[in-house]
Design a protein that fits this description.
This protein is of the alpha/beta class and 511 residues long. Helix content is 43%, strand content 8%. Strands 2, 3, 4, 5, 6 and 7 form a 6-stranded parallel β-sheet that branches. A 5-stranded parallel β-sheet has the order 10-9-8-11-12. Strands 1-13 form a two-stranded antiparallel ribbon.
Length: 511
């Protein structure tokens, strides 16, 4: 009898285990991350409660003076620098090209953008003809957008025609040189050895001979494969000319971006479908008709790579640790430090709650029109609920655009990012929650045009958020003091720093 019961018990246990294993297969929605509609009951984490309740309470009841608002929303004063990338004389292309250059670019929109600029420069250095760069499928976002889907190819080619020869595709005799061709084996025409931040001489010594032998060279990988230093001034200025003038988005991305900008500046009453008329008073709000863009870089990749604790409990910590191991096989140095050590060093990305508290301390109020530029927030709507409580007028692409308008960009991470980039560059203020390629690209573009950009003081904020006894008044004063000079003031590029992030002095002149 006992053995039968034991057998029956084991059989029932096995059956229950099998059901648990099969649940994700038949009911995947139950295990998906939290989203807009309904939370998952078996999510890898449950939405954490606010971690800074005292500060949140203070932020919700904050009082902001008209003087503070005026200072926050005022334009940057002229800083004595202006764009300076014009040629004194019209450049002339050599009569004969040394061959064709192909590059294969990985990463997201902004990493690829920098690679495109570098590809033009390498072609210039080698006197080669550049083939429109091939954009690899993004492994994180599973995006296969091509150069032609994102950028205006005709403008790109025509704008640079006096500087570099660029073609849409290879001539027939080189049609064999495809991405698939190089994936099948080692090829003499593929250059795989380009070091990170290679010098101009490296390309002359290692790639030019390939061009001279075969008439074509394919460089892959190509991200960050050209140095920022020891290049002639005209070459550095050409980099900025490509980045800020030659690379413009296709018309439908620009049109959608412009529509979103107009809707942010002129809110529409959903009940009357008429533009709300601002009441013009003697003391009209300084921020009327203005908006800020927040790039909330808080996706699963960012959260996992940081190795920080975000309040989701043991389930979240285990899930992020497993993701970190699968993706980077233990090559995340941050995982060797405690959460407190990482935060005190400013190495943890700001959570939506924390960036909301930062904005509140800087003087943004509940009437601020805030555009959320993000592809996918880890934890979805539940994670950003505190931020939305502080800034109820927060919008994004989906809340501002119609289904029809989003048709051409929906499901394409790079196209969606391009729309965000457009809105970010045209906003009154831009803030990025954490450093990254989007932050660097937009910061450089707005520096070039002298537009206000707030750079969070990550080390200061990390230390402030570790202080559980700090009150709102003390926090607010510390934040404001620690962000003086971080509103877009010109920072000259230092050796090894990116010219795409710091265009002065290479691409800007005093005057």
């Amino acid at each position: 009898m006992r053995s039968w019961r034991h057998y029956h018990s084991n059989r029932e246990g096995a059956l229950v285990a099998l059901i648990v294993l099969l649940l994700p297969v038949f009911f995947p929605g139950l295990f998906s991350p939290l989203g807009r509609v309904s939370p998952s009951i078996f999510s890898e984490w449950n939405a954490p409660k606010p971690r800074h309740l005292a500060l949140l309470e203070g932020a919700l009841h904050r009082k902001i003076s008209d003087e503070q608002k005026s200072e926050l929303w005022s334009q940057l004063s002229p800083q004595g620098w202006k764009p300076c990338i014009g040629s004194a004389s019209r450049p002339v292309l050599p009569a004969k090209s040394s061959g064709y250059i192909q590059v294969f670019l990985d990463g997201g929109l902004n990493q690829q953008r920098m690679g495109i600029c570098d590809a033009v420069i390498v072609a210039k250095i080698l006197n080669a003809t550049l083939v429109i760069p091939h954009l690899e499928v993004n492994l994180v976002w599973q995006d296969s957008s091509s150069f032609e889907e994102i950028y205006d190819v005709d403008h790109f080619i025509n704008f640079l025609k006096d500087e570099v020869s660029i073609v849409r595709e290879l001539p027939k005799e080189f049609s064999w040189s495809t991405r698939e061709y190089y994936a099948l084996g080692i090829r003499a025409t593929r250059v795989k050895t380009a070091p990170v931040h290679a010098s101009a001489n490296w390309y002359l010594e290692n790639v030019l001979p390939v061009l001279q032998s075969y008439g074509i060279a394919a460089i892959s990988p190509f991200s960050h494969r050209l140095a920022f230093d020891d290049l002639p001034k005209e070459i550095q200025q050409l980099r900025c000319k490509v980045n800020f003038q030659a690379l413009i988005f296709v018309p439908h991305i620009n049109a959608l971006g412009e529509s979103l900008v107009k809707r942010l500046r002129n809110p529409v009453n959903p009940h009357s479908n008429e533009i709300l008329q601002e009441v013009v008073e003697e003391n009209a709000n300084e921020e009327s008709g203005k908006f800020a863009v927040l790039h909330l870089r808080f996706d699963k990749d960012m959260a996992a790579h940081s190795a920080c604790d975000f309040g989701g409990g043991k389930a979240e910590r285990l899930a992020l640790a497993k993701y970190r191991q699968v993706i980077w096989q233990g090559r995340v140095l941050n995982s060797q430090f405690t959460d407190e050590e990482l935060r005190s060093q400013g190495r943890c990305p700001l959570t939506p709650e924390e960036i909301g508290l930062l904005l509140a301390a800087l003087g943004f109020d509940s009437k601020t029109r805030l555009y959320l530029a993000s592809h996918k927030v880890y934890g979805g709507e539940s994670r950003i609920s505190t931020l939305r409580k502080l800034f109820p007028l927060m919008e994004d692409k989906k809340s501002l655009a119609s289904v029809e308008e989003l048709t051409k960009v929906e499901g394409k991470a790079s196209l969606l990012a391009a729309v965000d980039y457009y809105v970010s560059v045209h906003s009154d203020i831009f803030i990025s929650a954490s450093p990254g390629n989007m932050h660097n690209a937009v910061l450089g573009h707005r520096t070039y045009e002298n537009l206000k950009t707030i750079r969070p003081n990550m080390a200061l904020l990390g230390q402030l958020f570790l202080n559980k006894s700090i009150g709102w008044s003390e926090f607010e004063q510390a934040v404001r003091a620690g962000h003086k000079g971080r509103y877009g003031q010109i920072r000259l590029r230092k050796p090894k720093q990116s010219i795409y992030t710091y265009p002065a002095p290479d691409c800007m002149c005093r005057g």
